[in-house]
């Protein structure tokens, strides 16, 4: 079961040949705690999403997968942009700089065990002009996205260099996710695996 409403995460799972039996979005408070570091923030949110989904899902034989993506500049956690102005602020900050994208995954096993892991990808943006930022903001793609951009969309043209898995930036580190599921015994006897 995928504990996420993200169509990108669903598409990434499909790319790996995994089709969840159910999709259940969770609604948790994603506000960072005071002085919370980006990696710990992502791990906490993924864990909270997985626990919330497990509490409301009645199939005790399910593996429940949740994830959370955080964009950070150093120790600063960028928001999941809710307005065009937040998208503009994020892109202005990221212009010409390197940042980190951390995606944490949390899996609740059928026995109720919670397992978490996090992956990090470093992304460098080239310097962006005010017109490029304005055009991207006007397109609306960055609203609702961590750091105010979607690498799988128009923002890919902003990327100068990437170090790590592209899927981590999109929202689900595929190699890590599949490896963790296999290690927990999910694929054994699963008709979708």
What does this protein look like?
- With 193 residues, the chain is α+β, with helices and mostly antiparallel strands.
- The protein has a single domain (7-183), classed as Maf protein.
- Helices cover 33% and strands 21% of the residues.
- It contains six helices and five strands.
- The chain has helices at 7-15, 38-56, 84-94, 130-139, 166-170, 174-183; strands at residues 64-73, 76-77, 98-108, 114-125, 159-163.
- The protein has a five-stranded antiparallel sheet.
- Strand 3 and strand 4 (114-125) form a beta hairpin.
- The radius of gyration is 17 Å and the shape is elongated.
- The protein starts with 6 loop residues before the first helix and ends in a 10-residue tail after the last helix.
- 38% of the residues are buried.
